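Chain particulars:
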Amino acid sequence: MASLLSILADVPQLNIFRDSMQVIPGSAARFDYVSLAFWLLEIAEKQSSKKALQYLQQYIEAKEITILFVSAIEGIKLSHSSQVTESIRLVPWDDLPTTQQKDVVLRRSITTKGRHPSSLLIHEAVISKTHVPQDEVNTTKLISLHYDDSDVVLCAGLFGPSAPRIVASWVELPEWMPSWGAGYSFPPQTEPSQEIDWPSEAYDSLPKLYKILKSLEERKQRYFRVPLDRLNKAIRRVSQVDSAIDTGIALEALFLSDQNDDRGELTFRLRVRGARYLHDSLDSRIPVFRTLGLLYRLRSIAVHTGILPDEIDGHNVREILNQGYQITAKAIIGLINNGIPDWTRLILE
């Protein structure tokens, strides 16, 4: 070890390891000659001395490093990957080779919930190789680099519909990068998602839908986040009372965001707008008009009594809620793809 440290200290290209902090997204760690020596010996033991030197040479020559922001997702099972954007893709769980980080996430997920994450969201990014003195860490932009990919996950749930959710996130660094690795993020535990097979049409439709959503001005993106979030929560709820309330909020956010009239008028207006927007013929609009009415009654009952009956007007409550999820998802997809209409013209034409 003493000989190795002496050699490392005499190599000018390795001065970046002289009393400095290595910065990666979300963390910084002191990675000095001792750390480098241990890393080299570990690679040599697991692979070979030649490979350890090849990795070190690659890192010395690198100015930029491609890393992966990875999120483990439950709720949707993929048969193959979907390239959402140039840098974002959804993949089956097994498509990412097993790494230390992935193994830790899997073991924790099974231990805490007894569930196996079914898919992964991978966001590829290129970062600069960064070693700085300790007092400069907090001024380095890389330390706070983060990508919020929650919109991708919420949009993915529109197909089915389903309720995917992120259960853990971490950063994957390349094998050839000398480092102590990156940390993990485990969001607060919420109601779990029931896994479904992601529909075949979703693989092509999600990239197009997400591209349109992200091209909108921020104000319009915020318009969709409330119904997207509430629909996701409604599907995951254990309590039908909570599902009814969340579905009602999602429908109001979609069809009544411009209104502040009395509640009775709003209920009728929501039913008319929803039915006319989603269908072109009278025969197809009538069932939607009725279902929206039942959904709003369920929301009202849930809010005022805290309980729901098994049936309402001879209709099973669970089936009504499932129809509500379908209607809400279809409306969100349509409004993202085609824009928010002039509601007055829609009703009168």
